[in-house]
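Cross-check.
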Amino acid sequence: MIRVLLADDQSLVRAGFKALLDAQKDIEVAGEAADGEEALRKVRDLRPDVVLMDIRMPVLDGLEATRRITEDAGLQDVKVVMLTTFELDEYVFEAIRSGASGFLVKDTEPDELLRAVRAVVEGDALLSPGVTRRLIAEFAARSKEPAAAHPLAELTEREREVMALVGIGLSNDEIARRLVVSPLTAKTHVSRTMVKLGARDRAQLVVLAYESGLVRPGWLG
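Predicted model, tokenized:
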């Protein structure tokens, strides 16, 4: 059973999500929170698998709550999905930087929401190709010189190649076609790379690809 915590200051939004999620055989709503501080407390008490976290909330905003969750070693298995009103929310970049596994717009289709909840539990990032590329463009615009030392030395040549392709926004299927391997092989390489680098999910691989210098601004053409 996938346990979900709903964090949103609008009770109607929480009620709608709760009705949809609780109707699924494999998902249950473990709790609700109306602000970031309450969300943080309930995450620590309930240890949900997934938190659907609104970005803008009183007391403590969703961005800071997410940062505190992802920086807590005891909560490393909790996945955070940010909820936003607009796809190009100004805080999306910082949300991914803070460790969120992705984001959803609040008016997303019910089937997409359910797919998203199940996907993050499997370690996938919720970033559509178009959104990923815009996110990467933002990283390129803000990028700094890469750190002098980074644990990329632990990666094989193929894993570095796969990580670079993740970094420029390719999906597993696109990576498979580029490298002429099966999608399962591509997914395995991505998973092993995340394990070696301690990345929570695919979204953090994008961050690490830029911060390590493996991918540099201008690669998008």
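The first strand starts at residue 2 and ends at 7. The mean pLDDT is 82. Passed to J.P. for a second look.
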